[in-house]
Amino acid sequence: MSPILNQAEPVFTANRFITLQFDPTSELGKKLATVDESVRFKANASTPGMAELISGINQDIFTEKQSPISIENATVDYTGTMKGSSDRLSVSYKVVFTPSISGFTLPSNTSESAGALVDLDWRGFHTSRPLELQVPDIGNMSINYPLSLLQVQFPELAQQLNSSEANEIFQTPLFNFEDIAVPMDRWHFLFDPTGSQASTAGSGYQELGGSRVVSIFSLGESSFREGVMEAKESDASAVIDGTNVEVHASHPPPSGQIQIGGFATVTKSGNSEVAFVTENAPEGTSTATGGFPLQVLLILAGMMAAVSVFVLWKARK
Length: 317
Prior knowledge:
Elements: E1 7-8, E2 12-21, H1 27-32, E3 36-43, H2 50-65, E4 70-84, E5 88-102, E6 105-106, E7 116-119, E8 132-135, E9 139-142, H3 147-153, H4 155-162, H5 167-170, E10 188-192, H6 196-201, E11 214-219, E12 232-240, E13 243-251, E14 256-261, E15 263-269, E16 272-278, H7 294-303
Antiparallel strand pairs: 1-5, 2-5, 2-13, 3-4, 4-5, 6-7, 7-16, 8-9, 10-11, 11-14, 12-13, 15-16
């Protein structure tokens, strides 16, 4: 993200895995064993419901985070799959939300050459809105509630789950990025004066507003200093067509990366965090925290495809 451009395209990816386990000899087991279904679609500004989706998330970010940023446009890439076997139905969700934002560079009394203040609070937004879109050949679908996928493919199954104690699992929003709202002092920090290390690591670095200097904050590697990043799991029971079903949901540990053009130092005021960004680092500044080596960038770059949340800031071209 570039304080100069004051525009960016963060990428949020939400993953969820839900398993329904049942007696393989039951009628339900026989019906679900052969299931192999998927729902995939992309949505953009022309998709009915996208304007309301963007407006709702903007309201939630302002209400929850008091952040001045504004989402001006967005795309959604939704993938939901259902795979049956002899004793279980595995359901997986991957929703990639890419908003175009502006307004994260805050007003300051200092001159532009002295540095800029960048809002960081909104990174961990969440919303409990259904976020419904009108999808061709599918109809009205919530991209935020897991139950919606089953309502599209197996409405009777969805209705029974919705009437059981497993309802909470299937109504838990996918768009919950609160885990990456952990304080920035739990993120690894690397200052790269040339951008060469980030480029070599394949972390997605590109020049930000013409700046080759980059500050990189990464979350996801557990350590004594940063703590342990743990998966979230929950369990519930249901009775479907007279068969007892055990429902298990898992949400992988959070992982993310923020790249800021310039040298960034994070300041906390109350519950808010902002980055003060200058063109270059003060003399004698440490380039990393917590023994953060280049190898960590390589590891984190490889982790991004499999983690629950991936945030990569990049300037709008």
